[in-house]
Amino acid sequence: MPGTKDVRELEPKLDVHDPNFKELWERSLVRGIASYLSTYVPDRGELAGPAFIVVGTGKEALKNAHAELVKDRGATRNSNVSANTELTLVFYSYVTGWHLRLKSIEKSPSVVTIKYQFVAPREPAFAATRFALVPIGKLTKGEVKVEVEQLPPVDYAGRAMPPKRDADRFVCGSFSFEVR
């Protein structure tokens, strides 16, 4: 996603000629998350689920995001975190035929706002999942709301497109958590 770091840089670069390639590929946290997001898609009428917060940054955040999203299938989301702990926000989408772009991330002491936009591809493209690890640093005590907002969709040339009506089925939603 434009404006973010490539999460694949958090893991060793894979070489298909490496004799251990298959084992490394199967242990890849990035691959595990992408595989989960492409295998499971909420049914019509269901919601994608909320974005969520994990402790740590970088590789630690990737491990924690994998544990919460893939291993637990979202059963255990952090709703309380300790003050003065490095935190990362996990934003994700399931497979959809549109591209997804993070447009902005705004942070105040009690609100984090993520704005994203669907972009219609020039030609039919293979479906891809997207996820981003957004470091938000240490927060002070209190409730924090994370607002996920969809901006009007555009086509590949930036022209306005009709609204994507089922976005909340494919893209994670808003939530709140407590910093103690």
What is the compact description of this entry?
By secondary structure, the chain is of the alpha/beta class. It is built from four helices and eight strands, in the order H-H-E-H-E-E-E-E-E-E-H-E.
Radius of gyration based on Cα positions: 17 Å
Q: Based on Cα principal axes, name the global outline.
A: globular
Number of domains: 1
Low-confidence stretches: none
Query: Numbering strands along the chain, what is their spatial order in the largest sheet?
Result: 2-8-7-5-4
H and E string: HHEHEEEEEEHE
Sketch the major β-sheet.
Answer: 5 strands, mixed
What is the count of helical runs? 4
**What is the tally of beta strands?**
8
Overall helicity = 10-25%
Strand content bin: 35-45%
Q: What is the typical, i.e. mean, pLDDT?
A: 86
Gap from first CA to last CA: 32 Å
What is the structural class?
alpha/beta
Structural overview:
With 180 residues, this protein is of the alpha/beta class. The chain has one domain (16-179). The chain has four helices and eight strands; from the N terminus they run ααβαββββββαβ. A five-stranded mixed sheet has the order 2-8-7-5-4, with no helix packed on it. The longest helix is centred in the middle third of the chain and has 14 residues, at 58-71. The protein is globular. The model has no long low-confidence stretch (mean pLDDT 86).
